[in-house]
Amino acid sequence: MVTHESGGHHHPPTGFIRKYIFSIDHKVIGIQYWFLALFSVFVGMFLSLLMRLHLVWPNLKLPFTAGGVMLPETYLALVTMHGSIMVFMVLTTAPQGGFGNYALPIQIGAEDMAFPILNMLSFWTTFVSLMVLIAAFFVTGGPPIGGWTAYPPLSALGEIVGPGQGTGMTLWVVGVMIFCLASLLGALNFIVTTVDLRAKGMTFGRLPLTVWSWLITAILGLLAFGVLLAACILLLLDRVAGTSFFIPGGLVVTDTVITWHKGGSPLLWQHLFWFFGHPEVYIAILPGMGVASHLLATFSRKPVFGYKAMVGAMLAIGFLGFCVWGHHMFVSGMSPYSAFAFSIMTMTIGVPSAIKTFNWMGTLWGGKIQFTTAMLFALGFVSLFVTGGLSGLFLAQPSLDLYLHDTYFVVAHFHLIMGVAAIFGIFAATFFWFPKMFGRMLSEPLGKIHFWLTFVGVYCIFMPMHFLGLAGHPRRYADTTGVNFLAPLHTVHYFITIAAFFTISAQLIFLFNVIYSLIAGKKASANPWNATTLEWSVSSPPPFDNFGGVVPVVYRGAYEFSVPDAAEDFIPQGLAPEKVGRAH
Amino acid sequence: MRSKRPDAGSTAVALMFSLFLVIFTLATVYLFLAQVWPFSDVRIWFPPAITDFGKQIDSQFHRTLIITGVIFVLAQFGLALTIFRSRDRGQKASYIEGNSTMEFVWTLATVVMFVGLAFYGEHAWAEAHFMGAAPGALMVEVTGQQFAWNFRYAGPDGKFGRLQPELVSASSGNPLGLDPRDPSGKDDVVSPVMYVPVGREVELLIRSQDVTHSFYVRELRLKQDAVPGMTIAMHFNATVEGQYEIACAELCGLGHYRMRSFLNVVSQADYDKWFQDQETALTQ
To answer: Alpha-carbon distance B246 to B202, whole Å?
Structure first.
């Protein structure tokens, strides 16, 4: 079944276009995804900066708001595009399409993904999707307003319900549909590759935890994106073909009776969306968990504590992730009886999350920690994961959602856990694999400055948001003048905006580090971190077919660090037993 | 054994990381205890609840806060301690692959704690949603529309009149589309603000005319989406007189941030007077 579409043996392409643009090499595609995410994250951050400025200085004149002050609809468009770009184009692409693509085949000892041409198509389909989403900024009627969740009937009725509901919203729906297709192709490829292309000796019990996380993420993607695709097709039909999947009858919009729609259910969209949307949270964070586990072991020079428990926890999170979507809908009008089941399932998903945290601590305990920048981000990930996860215990309870739902408490929660923690996973992965990807080291001093400013910064941004939520501040409010009780909270917003300004500025250090290191970074050796997995057994960057014609064989698990009696404090997976040095 | 990496700077970085975690944790705990934003008198906490139900919600919140607070402090301090203790001092790392007993213990502990918390929280939820309003409740129909709230009272006959979408006209004073041919609608009062008598059970029938909105009153500890095509019941019994803001909590378009109204909890006498004034206005 599994054949290499490029022929029996890979030959490196010679032309620029086949080599760097329409490449079928998983390493080039991984780097393409990584650059796509890097571009997107700066776009998304810039949008959030505009939002933060507007919240604090609503009368500020900005050059790109047609010389005037920002209108409420512009603010809501920024909310929508920030969320969509960050969730789809950064949190879904970088961890999986980027690092998964780059490292998974080498880590399992394969010379490429199972379907290289499909892999290329996945990337270019993602690219088209990004272009369609960005085009929504520039159409008449304005960019879409709906948040990244695009609840109908607002998103379904068209321009009659206000600005941003015309072509902009249609482009949003189409862009997301294209993204679903790209993600489905990618997910299939990841699963087949992991199952079929493992090198001799690479049993499932010896897989690096990164590979487990990418595999489980791919399974989630395969099951979740199909549902979102279906939902988006129905929404598109409601918008352009006059169907009424999500639109009930008898609606009156500004004194106009909507006679051409009837019989649909707004809640149907919410069920479909969150059946995708909750697994999507784990699609964003699971690879971060894999990277954190991998790096904590590597840089504390210790085996992963409880490898099987870690794999089991990820499988449990993946499975339970499909049973909890209703916790986004406690106040939606869904049956209040089902809320109980969703609540219990959601609390249960906290258990494998806690197991992971315990095991990370267990991995570090008694280790010999090397504080590389990659490790700092992995440690930051653990702290953020705990902080962001615990607020989930409030939101998992329907009774507390009666107060907290759709307040800034939720904004704080999901930004810490699926936004910032996942981004820390991406940063950790970047500092870890950059030498392998580009053959040069990122600057450690610059990296450390960037880490500290970011770590302190994100906590300063998102911790105060919990308190805005506790004071009852609803989210997606264009400013604080419309409701009296919000006015005093302006001072908290002020603090958050200052923190956001500094934190976003600090990301320019990272950008500079990347550009500088690409050009003049220290040359990377094959294994600069003394790591054990297969990608570190080949040159940096690896040859076109990854192993230079040698067929790798795996002799042991992925985390053989500080093995008693061994000469070195790490034993690579592919090192033959007779070559392992003995301590005297 | 390999020497430590020259760029790893172990003790200073370990100390910095651990200190940051400790300071951050203490600052967070302080804010949760102080409930006031530093260097100001801005309250960053729930306003006082005005129903017995709201006080139950607050108790469940506090239970959850204590459990998560203890876990939060233990986890962040534990991480700080682990990082500092396990810094590179030239030692050899220990070779430990796991411990099944510990895995079992912490799994069981979190199951009991988390799931127990969920069961505890169900009492308040059941009261809000499984139990209906007490008999004799005052019925108020709440309708959301871009970007206003309207509240309808059935009047002396206790019956809401028929609504016709075709008759909706905010400009000519019929924002809900009351059908004048239906006699039971003759005495229906429609108001842009809500009045309720203190200590009286109130049943809300929440609906929307156009897109999804969400009815939210902080002091009631209640939030319910107003979904087009559905009528969703909620109930409360406010025991403290005062004026409270009603905000929209579901993105409904450009005016979402200013879609608000007021809940006035007044004495029975004041309520009767207000209602009488409304009825009088109807007949003029």
So the answer is: 16
